[in-house]
Amino acid sequence: MKMNLSQSWQQQLNDEFEKPYFKNLMQFVTKEYSQHTCYPNESDVFAAFNHCEFDKVKVVIIGQDPYHGPNQANGLCFSVKDGIKHPPSLVNIFKELESDIGKAYPESGNLEKWAKQGVLLLNATLTVREHEPGSHQKMGWEMFTDTVISKLSENSERLVFLLWGGFAKKKAKLINKKNHTILTSGHPSPLSANRGYWFGNRHFSVCNKILDDLGNKKITW
Fold first, then answer.
1. pTM across the whole model
2. Marked catalytic residue, from 15, 55, 65, 82
3. Which of 41, 71, 93, 147 is deepest in the core (most CB within 10 A)?
4. End-to-end Cα spacing for the chain
């Protein structure tokens, strides 16, 4: 599997690529893609990094693993390809955007436009077998993406981390809270949102206020 990571990410992660766990992970993923239908497309596995350079990251959103249905996953957490029906969590993200900042509900669920402004949309596990959620968990991806979060914490300044749901909140231990801001809420999935843990968190406006106070350009959500 070709990573083709940009220079800024390679400088941070080159040592990781040489570790035994990562080589084993790549062997596993290569075999899975050769024997099963897996998502996202091989060319999109590292899309989160390729749409958002390390030194351009301003905001980090953490998901769990990719969508496992046909033509959904595009390598960015919560995002789908243009023209694809919005999954329930993404619907609730867009509903919160509407109520928070008054943005009209978007037609496309492709979040590449966020990534290109400095929002790293990182799934903890970067691949999945079709119709088998969680099928590629605990094979090494989490070790890799935990390293990504730690590198961002150590080697960046004043990032905003949006941790939605219990899984993402566990990543807070990897983040230096003196140097970065962590915003937490329930997950945007219907189960959590309908219990009152998602709607009204106002993370999008709060995040932009933090960026503005830091002198950074706000995100056009």
1. 0.96
2. 65
3. 93
4. 32
Reading the block at residue 72, the tokens are 């959904």
131-168 confidence digits (pLDDT tens): 999 999 999 999 999 999 999 999 999 999 999 999 99
Alpha helices (H) along 18-140: 20-35, 47-50, 88-101, 112-115
Domain boundaries, the chain: 7-214
Using alpha carbons only, give the angle 33, 41, 95 rounded to the nearest 5 degrees.
130
One-letter-per-residue 3-state SS of 145-169: HHHHHHHHHHHCCCCEEEEEHHHHH
Please name which of 45, 98, 100, 53 lies closest in space to residue 75, comparing C-alpha atoms: 45
CA distances from 33 to 29, 45, 129 (A): 6, 11, 8
Query: What rounded mean pLDDT belongs to the chain?
Result: 96
Asked about 44 being catalytic, the answer comes back as no
Torsions phi, psi for 146 (to 5 deg): -65, -40
Q: Measured between alpha carbons, how far is 174 from 149 in angstroms, rounded to an integer?
A: 7
Length in residues, the chain? 221
Query: What gap in Å lies between CA 197 and CA 190, rounded to an integer?
Result: 10
Output the CA torsion sign for 52, 57, 59, 62: positive
The CATH number of domain 7-214 is 3.40.470.10 = yes
